[in-house]
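Practice problem: Dihydrolipoyl dehydrogenase family protein
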Amino acid sequence: MTDEFDVIVIGAGPAGENAAARAVRGGLTAAIVEDRLAGGECSYWACIPSKALLRPVDLMAEVGRVPGLSLGPIEVSKVLARRDEAVSHFDDSGQVEWIDSVPIEFVRGRGRLDGVKRVRVTPRDGGAERVLTARHAVVLATGSTALVPPIPGLAEAKPWTSHEVTAAKAVPERLVVLGGGVVACEMAQAMHGLGARQTTVLIRGGSLLSKLEPFAGELLAESFSEAGIDVRAHTGVARVERPEPGGKVTVHLAEGPPLEADELLVATGRVPATADLGLGTVGLPGGRTVEVDDSMRATAVEGGWLYAVGDVNGRALLTHMGKYQARACGDVIAARAKGGDDTLPAMRDIADEYGAPQVVFTDPQICAVGRTEAAAREAGFPVRVVEYDLGKVSGAYLLGDGYRGRAKAVVDEERRVLLGVTFAGPGAAELLHAATIAVTAEVPLDRLWHAVPSFPTVSEIWLRLLEEYGL
Ligand SMILES: Cc1cc2nc3c(=O)[nH]c(=O)nc-3n(C[C@H](O)[C@H](O)[C@H](O)COP(=O)(O)OP(=O)(O)OC[C@H]3O[C@@H](n4cnc5c(N)ncnc54)[C@H](O)[C@@H]3O)c2cc1C
Ligand SMILES: NC(=O)c1ccc[n+]([C@@H]2O[C@H](COP(=O)([O-])OP(=O)(O)OC[C@H]3O[C@@H](n4cnc5c(N)ncnc54)[C@H](O)[C@@H]3O)[C@@H](O)[C@H]2O)c1
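Answer key — structure tokens:
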């Protein structure tokens, strides 16, 4: 078995798999090193299980808005069983089969850089180490791990992170969630909808989803409040106590009485998985994101042989963006290896600069692409903003009684193109790609006017936004 490949990828998550596959498509040989399960965080402990847990909760909310329909209580054991199916019962043989079929050499074990173009692989089972060498490139695609802030007693309490909550075997009666970002919001709603009797979300700032347009967090907070989820803003945690492993946990707040819960979920962001990656052997600091240029090449490493895609480069912590970066990366590596044209537009990450599209799968769904108003103003664009009540669009009204939602478009007044769009509302996720096209392709508003939305769809929001703008 040869231990030399054109390209070696460390990490077989969605980004790593795509980078390797594109390099092979470009005529190179590739090996991919994976410590745990091929498919990565996304397939087993993130996107897939979280959405499997949210789907019945979302459906219940949808059905509840249409008079004449009713659903019985959710059978949680069946939901968890379906989630288990969705994560293939933590068996990655299907993914490995696909990797073999590309063909990419699959190497199970922990990969660490071992100097220029060398990767040392340590198998988990204590088997012999293997040193792989790359003729052209090494791609880091090791993703990220949950950040547990240094709150006294927190780490010792062994709280849930995204790993444990997405793999939950049962729903805790009383759940405290620390953080107000995407993981916190999605998982608080999933657990509450699946039967948590008391769900409390502690946010240190003033709002949920604070990186998005303010109305998105406000609408979500209203929905949480109606569902009985207790959101506490400006709430700091002083210390955490859990005398018995897995037993009751007491969360002492900076102010006010402590909270007692059966489980504590920490959802306070991510750290890049670079701490134990041998970065020091190539002169890079460990534990930080790997800075890359728009062809995904590490900027601080000489020789241009090291690349980083997905969460590990910190550009956009989203599966679709990691895969997009990986396609560019695999293609550009193949072009550079073969002396081909490495400047084609598809070989560059341009989308991250516009602002990555993202859907938060809560009820209401929150979808955004491009810049928020605040970000656009800060970047110095001549901004004009238009907003519209999504519930007033006929298509939305027909989806269910009491439909509540909102849309906001951020316009570059000089060029008359969209800089960003945000929708919040049930079923809004499918509206997002139209916005992504409009923002990324910089479709002039006067041309967008001629993209006539069908009646009665929620997409008529486009017509309303453009009318608000003055067209
Ligand atoms: C709860 C949750 C829900 C999410 N939902 C969504 C969603 O709905 N949509 C979306 O777009 N994004 C979602 N995300 C974000 C998404 O999961 C990540 O952006 C995505 O997984 C990043 O892909 P990646 O390939 O960069 O890394 P990962 O998926 O983390 O894969 C990295 C792989 O590298 C392996 N690895 C790490 N270090 C080594 C090493 N030294 N040697 C060998 N292997 C190694 C790991 O075992 C892992 O398999 C969610 C995240 C969380 C936490
Ligand atoms: N549907 C999706 O696309 C989806 C779902 C889940 C996660 N993700 C991705 O995963 C990434 C990570 O999600 P996340 O929710 O962990 O991070 P996040 O950055 O979205 O949110 C982190 C939250 O924790 C808070 N926080 C940070 N440190 C804290 C501290 N010490 N004490 C209290 N609060 C603190 C922040 O204020 C913020 O509210 C996101 O950036 C997102 O891109 C995407």
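Discussion: The longest strand covers residues 130-140. Students who identified this feature from the tokens alone can consider the problem solved.
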